[in-house]
Amino acid sequence: MAPSTDLNTHSPGDASEPASEELRTLLKTATNVFADYVARCQSAQAPILTQASGDELSERFSQLGPKTANIWHDISEITATATNTWSDRFLFKLYAAPTPIGVVAETLLAVLNNNAHVFQASPVGAVLEAAVVRELARLAGFPETTGGLTFPGGSYSNIHALMIARNTKFPEIKTKGISAPLVVFTSAHAHYSIEKAAVAAGIGLDNVVKVPVDAGGRMDARALEQLVQSAAGVPFFVNATMGTTVLGAFDQLEEIARVCQRHQLWLHLDGSWGGPLGLFADPAVFSYSMAPVDSLTINPHKLLGIPLQCSILLVRHGLHTMKSALGLSADYLFHSDSDKWDVGDATLGCGRRPDAIKLWVAWRYHGSAYFTGRVNHARRMALQMAEMVKVRSSGLWRLVCEPASTCVCFWFVPRGAYEDPGELEAHRARGVDERWGRVTRAICERVNREGRVLIDYAAVDLPYGQPAAQPLPAFFRIPLNSPHTTRETLAAVLDAIEQAGHAIFNQL
Amino acid sequence: MAPSTDLNTHSPGDASEPASEELRTLLKTATNVFADYVARCQSAQAPILTQASGDELSERFSQLGPKTANIWHDISEITATATNTWSDRFLFKLYAAPTPIGVVAETLLAVLNNNAHVFQASPVGAVLEAAVVRELARLAGFPETTGGLTFPGGSYSNIHALMIARNTKFPEIKTKGISAPLVVFTSAHAHYSIEKAAVAAGIGLDNVVKVPVDAGGRMDARALEQLVQSAAGVPFFVNATMGTTVLGAFDQLEEIARVCQRHQLWLHLDGSWGGPLGLFADPAVFSYSMAPVDSLTINPHKLLGIPLQCSILLVRHGLHTMKSALGLSADYLFHSDSDKWDVGDATLGCGRRPDAIKLWVAWRYHGSAYFTGRVNHARRMALQMAEMVKVRSSGLWRLVCEPASTCVCFWFVPRGAYEDPGELEAHRARGVDERWGRVTRAICERVNREGRVLIDYAAVDLPYGQPAAQPLPAFFRIPLNSPHTTRETLAAVLDAIEQAGHAIFNQL
Asked: Where is this region: Disordered (chains A, B) (predicted)?
């Protein structure tokens, strides 16, 4: 096809306004739209969750294709139906409100649109990534030769750790594929991404051994060693956790590390949730005893308030280990004259956001002391909430366990949940009742539907795989994170739970 | 540890200013800082690439830990050393300047900080994702029951396609792992992410069969069938490409689809680069004949100007196929009462940015006609540049092939590259000379070092695996994408190449 003669008249950009001025006009409006939105979100009466169902929302946003008359109308519809993460009463998942500087840093990433696969496509991103990796490695007691990169979330960091471990221990798998069964060990309370990693890696769920946990939700190192010795395939990888997903338990590393040394297993530490607490907390508030591990995941997008996504994987054996495990040195992208700053080949991806810039900017803006203050506050709020649960007296309030870090797990059973009030009193003294799971779910559903508080529930066996193990009915799981949380927040959440419980069960 | 009595005095947020006002103040400054930066980037003389090395930059940004006196100073250091993707002379990789509304949409994502794993954590993100998936599926001729999600880049979309195919065809792999060799087929010119997927999946590089390509860089369907029939393991997956990484070739799908049907192979189509051209272009400008495929990757962060990252994987067999291939239904996150809008379990990840919101907002702001105009323009610029290469007369200019879509690949060999001018003339008539690769690399390195233009080179065999195959020396590979590109841009790039060539070789 011959090119048309009027090529330059086809530029889709409107020549009447340069992109810089279009951006200025849009960002100017966005500044007020977004700041007003946040102010509304933080007001005491702000709803947290839309009451529209997915199908209803889908109707509302069905238009696509024709140009909108007013993009700010569309954006206000989006903000009106988004989940309000700025409220102190958003206590739903392991992340919270982003820091304002984090929002600016995210905007910076979009403005730069640099790509962290090769140095020339993101020179400053590459060095800022190295800087935050160096500092996190120092805090975690890793050697100076540690390598590290950002990945699109804790799961991807964990998946990369497992893939790097597999290909480092069995280099022939990179070329020949898997032919013998490999075995992975992870605590029964660890995050599911280890299982997803095993599925992805061609290892299979049957070869993921769930290691028992003690009464505090921590991996049992003696059970681990027995399971390693009796494994049906070739053990190679152990995942320990700093801050389990539900209870927030920190696995005790020393003994686990000794087991791994004795059996030459790769020890990965998943600190997606609890990592920043372990690394930044004032020792008087929270202390954790590190031991040498091969790799570590930390998610600054959780406890450090960086906007989603910012997850970092550290690998003790350096970037060259990551590259030789996963790299292909594709000619077209990674030229032979490229240097150590071309890091993308150490990942399973290609194009990559320079997410580390966000952490670097937030770190410079606030200083390390802010991160310490932030995680200290989260820990103190967890302890505070546990105390408040213990002294409540309407119905039955009981902690599942003392908060291991920054999650508080408890039951609330209103008197009306039992026809005979004596039954409740009987349960106060002895074990737990299976009925409490239905009570928890019903209360949680009602609280969230009312929309003033967003909370969640979970259930785990505690301990697990031990003689005393018992399956626990579902309980409230409240993760503490946001610096906006106060004692009043905690009281409001407990009140909302109590009121919803009475509203449901005292009518029965 | 008992909670301290002064819990509420430890809030790390500065109580003197609410977050909304901190955000307003920061975004107000950011608006001007970023718009001024873009204006500088788009000026005719703006440098594209920093001249500082990684080690030099690393020195400059070594401070971390103490709070900075002025974050805008730090940010201006970052912008000053970032790669300038706003210039029309940034022609380095397959992405370009983001659209201004894309930057605003990215800021919106950060402000919302919603998380696309479960519906309640990102209700509006879930429905906007479904909306863009529905519309892209319609454009690609997929059925209404198609499932689709965003992933953190084209590689991750392709990796997920391969994992979903593997676990759908061999469901026992999810639990038992891989025990027999599986074989994957992809064109010799396809993106390396298919090989990375095979490494990740435990299949191994030796089981990735590189299918020969014809003189246009397109997969040879007859060769594919022969290779399938003679494979040493179990064939299950074929990757075809809309827009190969170097030449931009579009594989001819009909015959490939028939081969896949005959042998019951999953057919994936990697449209990371060329997908938007195939889907949105005016048929008079570019047309592509689709055929039924099982899955399709499209990266709006490339040809549609959405800020990095925005990649979408469509799966013909629906979201339930994705979920049953990869899902674990982790209790703590995906409650049994969760509905079809909880989609995260269909991915290998957990937390997930609602990237589809960016595409939805840009689509509404500009309308479909903008996307059509944008890809038409990119295609026309490629044809225009090819014509300009053909008529240049100083030294030897030669296209590697006619532009298949929106990449232009060519050699320039200055007279001075040969001691005897007759040698150059002799090469004008017959084949190519291995020396041209060194010439290309030297010129490219100098052009990029001068910093006014950023371009790249590549080398592929063309055809490949055929009797007439020849290894080609490295050539310039110019991807056209940005709406800011004009005929003047193209002339400036060719002039820069020519001048650098003369400066290097006429001095010899």
From this structure: 1-20
Q: Which of B111, B205, B297 to mutate to test the interface with A (most CBs of A within 10 A)?
A: B111
Query: What pLDDT is recorded for position A6?
Result: 37
| Strand blocks (E) in B33-84 | none
Q: Do A128 and B352 lie within an 8 Å CB cutoff?
A: no
Of B13, B35, B77, the CB nearest to A24: B35
Contacts of residue B236, defined as CB under 8 A and 6 or more positions apart, other chains included, come to B165, B166, B169, B170, B182, B183, B184, B265, B266
User: By the 8 A CB rule, do B306 and B300 touch?
Assistant: yes
List pLDDT tens digits, range B81-124: 999 999 999 999 999 999 999 999 999 999 999 999 999 999 99
pLDDT, one tens digit per residue, over B29-70 is 999 999 999 999 999 889 999 999 999 999 999 888 889 999
Domain made up of A371-505: CATH architecture: Alpha-Beta Complex (3.90)
DSSP assignment of B437-477 equals: HHHHHHHHHHHHHHTS-B-EEE--BSSBSSTT--BPPPEEE
More confident of the two residues B363 and A426? B363
Q: How far is A198 from chain B (nearest CA, A)?
A: 8
Taking the alpha carbons of B430, B431, B434, B436 in that order, is the dihedral positive or negative?
positive
The helix (H) or strand (E) run that includes residue A193 is: helix A193-200
Q: Tell me the nearest-neighbour CA distance from A422 into chain B, angstroms.
A: 32
Contact B101 A26 (CB under 8 A): yes
Model confidence, pTM: 0.95
- Give alpha helix (H) positions in A66-153: 71-81, 100-112, 123-139
Q: What is the mean pLDDT of residues A29-52?
A: 95
B204 to chain A, closest Cα gap in Å = 4
CATH second-level architecture of B105-367? 3-Layer(aba) Sandwich (3.40)
Omega cis (within 30) before B181: no
Nearest Cα residue to A188 out of A240, A252, A263: A240
Q: Which residues of A touch B18 (CB under 8 A)?
A: 39, 42
CB neighbour class for A381 (10 Å; exposed up to 12, middle 13-18, buried from 19):
buried
In this structure, how many other beta carbons lie within 10 angstroms of the beta carbon of residue B219? 31
Where exactly are the structural domains of chain A? 105-370, 371-505
Cβ distance of B200 and A200 shorter than 8 Å: yes
- Show the tokens assigned to B275: 């997908």
